[in-house]
Amino acid sequence: MVSKEYLAFQEAFAKLPPPGSLGPDDPPPEGVYLLGGGFPIPEGVTVSKETVAGVKVEWCRMAGAPKDKLIIYLHGGGFQPVPKGVYMDYPFGAELAARSGLNCVSVDYRMLPENHFPDTVHDAAAVYTALLKEGYSAEHIAVTGESAGGNLSLSLWLWCKMYGIPRPGAIAALSPAADLSGTEGAVGRPLAPERDLTAPLISPRYGDYRGMKRVFIQYGATGLEAFLVGPGEEMIADMRAQGVDVVYDHWPELGHAFAADVGLYPEADEACRRAIAFIKAEIGA
Q: Tag placement on the chain: N or C end, fewer CB within 10 Å?
């Protein structure tokens, strides 16, 4: 049984303009607060826009956070710009910092329509490798993101394996769009024109995860999530067959990327708490 807050959220969310109907410079629609716009930065968190390895980022620094551990947050949004006040001005990175007690860096990776694969993965990898060069240990870096960001979180791990780079200490993929060749084909082809959409760095559902110890994957089952969870569960089965300990956090009554809705309904708060608990345990925070 879902909460009354979640039902109210779904009713209001249904009245928002459909994704992609507004440009990045259009004014936020009424009700954009449902996506985080206008939410205050949590107490104790300082947010600053910076550049790491030539990539725009948003550092969310939590007072008293350890200096040697952090979270990399890769936002969702279908690899496409969204109205102002939603991402990069959206406080989920700051919420992750506040709720985990860890510093968090949100990556403003290049997006459609001007940019294509592999720009997205390269930007995430550039920030990650730059942090390694700054002295962070891979085992003390966690990577998380929802939807497209969940896709990128897994793709970054696969990229590190491909190039022999030390892999992040924790991956928490929230409602990841695991297969862009199928249910996300409309996004996959614009993102990667003339590419094989089953390439693992595009569709991590087809990746080789041997060598990964543990991973946290979270899915709901309603709305858009109904199209994502099937390929996602196939990926989970493959991961387990490859020897990966998959912590699968399944919420059958919830919709897409619900963990990022912290502060809006109790299920989101609990889902985020579970992801953070996994992250902190894995990187020893």
A: N
